[in-house]
Amino acid sequence: MLAEHRRLALWLPVGLGLGIAWYFRLRHEPGTPGVLAWAGIAVLGLGWIAWRPYALAPRVLGGGAATLALGFLAAFWATHRQPPLPDLPARATIVTGRIVAVALLPADGPSVRRLDLADAVLDDPLDSGMPPLRRILRVRLRADDPLVPVPGMVVRVRALLRPPAPPSLPGGPDRQRRAYFDGTAGGGMALGRAQALGPVPGASSLEALRERVSAHILHVLPGAAGGVATAVLTGSAVGMKQADRDAFADAGLAHLLAVAGLHLGIVMGVSVAVVRLLLACSEWATLYWPCRSIAAIAGLAAGILYVALTGAHLPALRSLTMAALVVLAIVTGRRALSLRGLAVGAILLLLTGPADLLEAPLQMSLAAVMALAAGAEVTRPLFVRLIEQPGWWRRALRHIAHLAQASLLAGGATVPVVMAHFGTLQPWFVLANLLAVPLMAMWVLPLGLLSLLLMPWGAEAMALVPMGWGIGLILDLARMVSGWPAARLAVPAMPGWGLAIWLLGLCWLCLWAGRWRWWGVGPMVLALAVPLLVVRPDLLLSPDGRTVAVRDGAVLRVGPRPGSERLVEDDWRQALALPIAPGGITTCRDGVCLRDAPAAGCAGMVLLITLAPDDAGCPGVRMLDTLTTWKSGAQAVFLRSGGPLVVSDRDWRGARPWVLAPGQHGMPVLPLAQRE
């Protein structure tokens, strides 16, 4: 510890993350005494460091306690400054609101638009005269709606609204928590055509520019190539067919379609190289100007414009924050890719958005960048010796080794994150990325940027046509790799504690420099085995109590109507890594009986799962029905020798601000009190 005391600062974001995770694992919201206790721990920890700043033990213990408490308090503050989830009407209602964003949704037929409405007012008997919603309401328009929506327009539409969907099984994806922190109230589908109220504002300059760019691209590159080009240059992959998107996902190349750190790094890298080359053409600029810093700032400006053009999505904004820190390091003469810069960026991201720690994008970003920075530290001397030796082939070998190292480290560090959130494993991702990323970095995106510069003069085809050739190679690669044996393996979803073990082991391996860093490999190996060791439920009951699934060997039998709840069945398939198969539900096993109609037999029954609303059950036998799921959400049953174990979604999540009341009811939209 004394030898590595300078690396203790790298563990500050780890402490913040543990405090945030502690808060979100609670079953009940902490009261005022608990919050004051955590604040006291933070003050005492910082005070102990200030009292003995040069001693190692106070720095470790005090700093660890303080960062843990600060993470807990940051999560608590972020939770309680959000407005509550509203209670949306169960019947169709008239919605009037102001459009803040328009999104095109993928569809096999005509494109479908989704509107994000702010200050939405509901016109129904219960909500008439109530104040506007304080959250965003997402309404999907009909495919035949002729309205051309633009941000700022006030629209009125009849829609059927629904709150965020509850977890499909205990421990499953929590869409209500995601919506709570995203500022959304729920969504719905328009039942009629939308009507614009008042004067129609003109499209914003960025929105209009994005549409013009998409139109130019699709005019020159129709088909799949145009869809990929639109995705990387405007952030919208609507033009791609579902088969092509699936091929990218199966080959481990889905990140090439989502504008995030990779695309931003390529755009900024190309911009830096071009500006620095132009400055090097001037003898005066080379001798008297800080060309490296000027090029870095120009690259950051290009990155800001690119993020704005592609819609300023949250992953891109996170990557832009990290890129700004890299540019700051270059301007101030510090190392650009370093673990200290990553620690600063991680602290900023965790304090500004604590709930993002539980989502896949932030976990994948931090894990990948940490693995890249730590790997660069270890392999830097080897690459330096490779450059110093003569021979052009050595430089070529260095570039190939760099690409292979980046694909292996970034992809390997995020494998368990993909397993935990998506329940899949792509064994060929390293090979696919080794070939596709150089094509994207040195061919596709540079030509895409050139096409943007040529569009004002109508000469974009000079760059878009060869760009399409490169996209065609990437498409062929994705289709080929996705067709290989075991290209996409379904694995049981890794529980949260297993993912935490992996991330802590990865931090131990990457953040220390001595030999004891290798102790982190043990927890990482254990975490990879967790999905195979965890006990899976034998029966599942959907949140509405109308669908049940039984694990029958290597399949999951769903009844009574397979396919009626597509979202729930997809979550079940992903969590258990089993294919869905139709099957009858009237059966008994180990004292647990399923039935969809009232029956008289109750002999030997311990637990009854019924889908019949008028089933009276059996005397002295526990029953799971629609009333049970109305109160406590989805149910999971584990068959054990001592009797069945039932776990409900309410047991798993507890009573938290983002957990809706029984019946999936939120807070009524009432007028504010005078104090508020």
What's the quick description here?
With 676 residues, this protein is α+β, with helices and mostly antiparallel strands.
Description:
It is found in: Cell membrane. By secondary structure, the protein is α+β, with helices and mostly antiparallel strands. Among the domains are: 1-81; 92-203; 496-533, no CATH class; 539-653, no CATH class. Helix content is 50%, strand content 13%. The model has no long low-confidence stretch (mean pLDDT 87).
Topology:
Layout: H1 12-24, H2 32-51, H3 56-80, E1 93-105, E2 112-123, E3 136-140, E4 154-162, H4 175-182, E5 184-190, E6 195-197, H5 205-220, H6 224-234, H7 242-250, H8 261-280, H9 283-288, H10 291-309, H11 314-331, H12 339-352, H13 360-388, H14 392-422, E7 424-425, H15 429-454, H16 461-482, E8 489-490, H17 496-511, H18 521-533, E9 539-541, E10 548-552, E11 555-559, H19 566-576, E12 580-582, E13 587-589, E14 592-595, E15 607-610, E16 622-624, H20 626-632, E17 635-638, E18 645-648, H21 649-653
Parallel strand pairs: 3-5, 11-12, 14-15, 15-16
Antiparallel strand pairs: 1-2, 1-4, 2-3, 4-5, 4-6, 7-8, 9-10, 9-17, 10-11, 13-14, 17-18
